[in-house]
């Protein structure tokens, strides 16, 4: 391997999730009439599917509603580590929540991990489930992070978490130190969820795709949800918002209480053998590694380059940085896939899970801070218990109405509350502006069919909609009001309001969308 090679030549031209590319998912109709159900679950990711499965198994009539297609949000673009080792977190938890709550956090995520593993076994799911140790390490010569990691290990000891301190890790990296947590797991998340979807359907569950749920909810007796443009009504006893960013705010101002971050993943075929295990650097920039099997080959997922949404360097540059790390660490034969994802983080970094208020039968689950596999299952188990009026020991810990904050988080929210709602970028973004709000000769990023889209209403009033993914390297274009164009911040490609190429390097127009979808 020559480190002087132009590494970016190896990267796929377009981003694509390996999970989605290797899974044949069923399709479901759009809701085309009023509908009555016991529980309406809004959001077709791992949280919504798991919650729907649990409640259908308990005998409830459950309807799962997805704005786009199932598993095309964060769940379809994860690294899929099933672990209770959530980065450098337990020392912080003890300081802000106390030892008992920190212990409950570990217990809830460990139980969620075991539930996923046992459910896959119970349903006979072929999803590549494999037990592996998780490692959290500091880079060599990063003395400050090493001290924090040592404090983190002391937190493990206080909480009874069975971690082990190591001076070396199996990777060809020199580290300052590491914490090993045995008995964690990895899997193919969509193959697992394929099985849960089928089990949900077998239990009598109903699924609608391309069904966008509006923000307004009537609460006179039973709940009434509405599809976008108030076309149809969904009447239910309980509603669950499992849509990443809550579809219903209820005056809680979640746009100011959630911080969006983007991160990036490469699937590489390594030159040197990968010894197994799941790894995460505590030092910056973050680096994540885990193995995966693909077409008879052993690949490694290299993740990291986390940044605040809208504040990263050129998107392609993040992939190039991961490629350099992978090349120097393991060597690269090929890179079959690259993709990015987005996560939301709460004020105190503990997810918001549970009833939105004491007198409403609306439940939310959000803010998983990159640890969605176990957090989503914690949420599903909790919400299922709450709807069935069963006691759950974790209700107070995750209560969405709580408020715990430290000065750094409060300062962060002050700086970002205005923009947080609009900066949930990429394909999982929940933009709240709608195409029908645009005036003549006005363009903007909008929400269409549950996804980010670009909209321009020409002077005659005709609406033009485009997919905002640049056809050159997959960056997200932004509206240039002065030029009436969609401009790519990465490599300078520019497109007309209806997607035609203005300037290269792009040669393919933006994909146009049907305003009537």
TrEMBL record:
Entries under SUPFAM superfamilies matching the protein: ISP domain, Nucleotide-binding domain
GO-annotated molecular function: 2 iron, 2 sulfur cluster binding; metal ion binding; monooxygenase activity; oxidoreductase activity, acting on paired donors, with incorporation or reduction of molecular oxygen
Source superkingdom: Bacteria
InterPro entries assigned: FAD-dep_OxRdtase, FAD/NAD-bd_sf, Rieske_2Fe-2S, Rieske_2Fe-2S_sf, Rieske_Fe-S_prot_C, YhfW_C
Keywords, comma-separated and alphabetical: 2Fe-2S, Disulfide bond, Iron, Iron-sulfur, Metal-binding
Annotated Rieske domain residues: 430-517
One GO CC term, this protein: cytoplasm
Pfam families to which the protein is assigned, alphabetical: DAO, Rieske
Matches recorded under PANTHER family: RIESKE 2FE-2S IRON-SULFUR PROTEIN YHFW-RELATED, SARCOSINE DEHYDROGENASE-RELATED
Protein known as: (2Fe-2S)-binding protein
UniProt organism field: Paenibacillus wynnii
Native organism taxonomy: Bacteria, Bacillati, Bacillota, Bacilli, Bacillales
